[in-house]
Design a protein that fits this description.
- It is found in: Cell membrane.
- The chain has 268 residues and is of the alpha/beta class.
- 35% of the residues lie in helices and 25% in strands.
- The protein has helices at residues 58-65, 97-104, 122-133, 138-151, 167-179, 197-212, 224-230, 248-253, 258-267, and strands at residues 20-29, 32-42, 47-51, 73-78, 81-82, 85-88, 91-94, 107-110, 185-189, 217-220, 233-238, 241-246.
- A hairpin with a 2-residue loop joins strand 1 and strand 2 (32-42).
- The longest helix is centred in the C-terminal third of the chain and has 16 residues, at 197-212.
- 37% of the residues are buried.
- Bound molecules: adenosine-5'-diphosphate and magnesium ion.
- Residues 29, 34, 52, 54-60 line the site of adenosine-5'-diphosphate.
Length: 268
């Protein structure tokens, strides 16, 4: 009897495994090596706060994770499956744009500068991804958008245009826009850095609510108090690598690395 060849199967992902894994991620722009082997895991429902100096590659890391740019090397696995690439023989090649767009739905991103469409109302901004990317019927998209605006405390501003909203309200619309796609992971890139100080709290409150509801989040931020209170893990990022990664208490009260101590001495 001839032996049948065994199919090589990918290991089965279970909810006990990390929902997102970043492995040996590298990115260069021209001759500048911006990400130099970033590695981390995040489990479902965890909040990871990422701190680090300006220019250290934090935004680049998030853009790669949101599939807005390809990596030069390494991989991003969502529930054990590599994102943004397709296997071709022994090598992997980037997915074509149409398929990338599908995978992007699973990773939400909130930017420092909101990036709302000025000619669309708050509700239309939130609906857009559903109607244009997912072909959800208008009425259903509107209902789902309204539910998300309610969740960020803005259902009474649904008909307002971005210019009629405060920065904090615009950022909450941007959060609703990301949430409505029902992402597996939500990435925040300094979501309160462009806001007047008195508007920061309302955005952090919404984010804390999402964290309490079990949303998996990676938050690049300078808000040390928020990181300490809300995050499950705090990470120091510097020169394109993760320097330290620990629970908030360990990170802030007993940092292991000199680089972390130096960073904290400037922000405390
Ligand atoms: P951070 O968010 O930590 O401030 P960034 O990821 O924005 O850092 O940038 C890291 C480095 O990569 C910076 O030196 C920046 O100038 C460079 N960089 C980022 N994006 C680009 C790009 N699209 N083209 C060229 N250089 C870039
Ligand atoms: Mg940045």
């Amino acid at each position: 009897m001839t032996q049948m060849p065994q199919p090589t199967e990918a290991p089965v992902w279970t909810p006990a495994d990390p929902v997102l894994q970043v492995r040996n991620l590298h990115k260069s722009y021209q001759d500048q090596h911006v990400l130099r082997g970033v590695e981390f895991d995040i489990h479902q429902g965890q909040v990871k706060a990422v701190l680090g100096p300006s220019g250290s590659g934090k935004s680049t890391m998030l853009r790669l994770m949101a599939l807005l740019e390809p990596a030069n090397d390494g991989e991003i696995l969502l529930r054990g499956r590599p994102l943004g690439v397709r296997e071709r023989g022994a090598t992997t090649v980037p997915l074509p744009e149409r398929e990338l767009a599908k995978e992007r739905r699973d990773i939400g991103m909130v930017f420092q500068k909101f990036n709302l469409f000025p000619h669309l109302s708050a509700c239309r901004n939130v609906m857009l991804g559903l109607t244009s990317v997912q072909s959800v019927p208008h009425k259903e998209a509107e209902e789902r958008a309204m539910a998300m605006l309610e969740r960020v405390g803005l259902s009474h501003r649904a008909g307002h245009y971005p210019s009629e909203l405060s920065g904090g309200q615009q950022q909450r619309v941007a959060i609703a826009r990301a949430l409505v796609m029902n992402p597996s992971v939500l990435l925040f890139d300094e979501p309160t850095s462009a806001l007047d100080p008195e508007l920061v709290g309302e955005v952090l409150d919404v984010m804390e609510g999402l964290a309490n509801d079990g949303m998996t989040m990676i938050v690049v931020t300078h808000e040390v108090r928020f990181a300490r209170r809300v995050a499950d893990q705090v990470t120091l990022f510097d020169s394109g690598v993760i320097v330290e990664q620990a629970s908030p208490d360990e990170f802030f009260d007993n940092p292991q690395h000199q680089r972390t101590r130096k960073f904290l001495s400037h922000v405390h």
